[in-house]
Structures are given as structure tokens and as C-alpha cells.
Amino acid sequence: MRMASAVSALGVVIAAWVAAWAIPAHAGGNAGDAGRALPARVIDVHLHGYEADAVNEAGPYYGIDAATRDAPTPANGAAHRQATLAAMERNHIVLGIVSASDGSDDLIVARQWAGKPGPRILTGVTERPMAHGVAPERLAALFDDGTYFLLGEVGLQYRGATLDEERFEPYLAMAEKKGIPVAVHTGLGPPEMARTVAPEFRIEAGNPIPLEKVLIRHPDLKIWAMHSGFPWDAEMFAIMQQFTKIYVDISPLPWMMSQEIVDRRLKWLLDWGMGKRIMFGTDQMYWPQAIDAAVSAIENSTVLTREQKDDIFYNNAVRFFGADRLNLPD
Ligand SMILES: [Zn+2]
């Protein structure tokens, strides 16, 4: 994380939720190997980008895969983008959904990533305009002209806020009316957030339960819980059980934790009957090589059938977003 510069920017880190110190011994993985098993096609619903000239001051890699851990970290936002696109291509990721992170400007990142050669990219706008009270009509115009595809990553936990607050209602009403997907960060963040870069960060604000009010008020809102709410498992299940249209993404577990933990998490979701509502997401942050490890962890999972893997990698996202809206390559 760019701890120092993040303070000087907006002081908000939109990132993953797992404590870097909580990493167990590595349990496998062959990312980067020639000839490793790969799915036919993948949609990655959770990628991050940075402004092209933003200097990368990432700390140590959060992941545990030896082959990817020691890979060089891109020097700046432009190199990060190139490395991410290359990782997408070698992992058969035909479509990626990208939002800004760590103080990079939403609009600049969206314009630098979209409409270029390579894998198809759709871009999101973070919670920043909502948190700053930007007029909803102004934001709406950027959806109407195709600049943004989704409202997300909505990282309100880093601001100690939750999506059910009244001040966010106009944005959610807009998203519901226009069919804009909303991706809300749930769960946790990197260690020591409140005492370092995000003083307003609160554990409680990662609880998925406030989504209940949102989903009652906006029955047609297309929403997914990023990071599948971990460690609020009972609460995440309750929301998914009651609101059958909400999906989750599995990031950043597949590259950050051991295969055993990834499999346990997947099995938990599958045992509760949620296999059709899990989407593949990487949350690669500063480490494009995480994409290799994440794809391999799902592909190599021993608890998933081929059909379940393909659902997570691709089919569930197509169903959630709608094939017509994704305009997928043939
Ligand atoms: Zn997140």
C-alpha cells in the first residue's frame, strides 16, 4: 500500500480485507508455469487501476504463492496497466471491470483504461463522488455517455459509512432506474487501517447487514457484495438467503490465502446453495501477478466441479450483468 502518499491524497485505501500477517504456509499453486490448467474464458469483476504517472510505492506482496510473490512490481500506473492486461490475456480473461484505487482519480483511470486494444475493460466510479455529495445528475451524465459502467468499488467502510445512509439514496435511486450495477465493499481491509491511512475505517461498517435496508428500498438494484462479506459469514448468508438477486465476488482470497482456505470458503458458499451467485474477482491492487495465482486457485480447486468453476469464472457474471450489457467478444 502507498501508506504515506495515500494520506496526502484522500487517505482512503480501496483494497482487500485480509491481514497480511495472517498468511499460512503456502499450499500449492503453479502460476506462471507454461502449460498450467486454465479455464476457457474468464470475467474478472474486481480489478483496480492507478493514474498512469502515479508512482507505485506498494509494500510487500500480500499473496503467498512463491512464483508470484517475487515477481517485479510495476513502477507506475502505466506499467501496472500493461502488466494487468498481459496477465488478463495469458489467463483467458476476456473482460475486466476496473476501478480506481488509493487516491487515483476515478475519471482519469477510467479514461486511461477504457477503449484500448486488448481485453475488454469496463470501468467503475468509486464512492468518492457520493461521499463528497457530487450532484447525482452530474454523475448520471458520465454513465449516460458510457464513461462509467458501474458504481464501484463503493468502499464506504474506509470512511466509516454504510450504504443505507440517507445521503446515498439519490445515487442508489439513479443506479436502480438506469440499471447501473453497484459493487459494494464488504468485510475487512488491510491491517491497521484506522490507525494509519484511513482514520474513519470501522470494522462494523464492513458488515453486510445494512444492505437489507438498501435492498428493500430498491428491489431492482443490481448489487454485489465484494469479498463476499468475510468474516461476516452468518450476516452474508442472511442477506443472500433473503435477497435472492444479490451476488458476491470471491476476491481477494484466491491469491491471498492457501488453497485449503480458498476451498473451505468456496465449499461454505456452495453448501448454502450459492454456487450460481459467486463471481470471479481478483482485486489485484499493485500486483498484476496475483491474477495468475487467483485463476489457478479456482481452476485447481478440488471442491468445484467443472460446471461450478465455469459458473464462477464466467457464467454467473454474464447472468448478473446481462450478456447484452457486457457486449462480450465472440
Ligand atoms: Zn474491497
UniProtKB/TrEMBL annotation:
Q: GO annotations under biological process?
A: secondary metabolic process
InterPro entries the UniProt entry points to: ACMSD (IPR032465), Amidohydro-rel (IPR006680), Metal_Hydrolase (IPR032466)
Q: Where is the Amidohydrolase-related domain?
A: 43-322
Any one Gene Ontology molecular-function term assigned to this protein's record: carboxy-lyase activity
Q: Which UniProt keywords apply?
A: Lyase, Signal
A single GO cellular-component term on record: cytoplasm
Instruction: Tell me where the transmembrane regions lie.
Output: none
User: Which SUPFAM superfamilies does this UniProt record tie to the protein?
Assistant: Metallo-dependent hydrolases (SSF51556)
Signal sequence bounds: 1-27
What is the protein name given in its UniProt record?
Amidohydrolase
Its taxonomic placement starts with: Bacteria, Pseudomonadati, Pseudomonadota, Alphaproteobacteria, Sphingomonadales
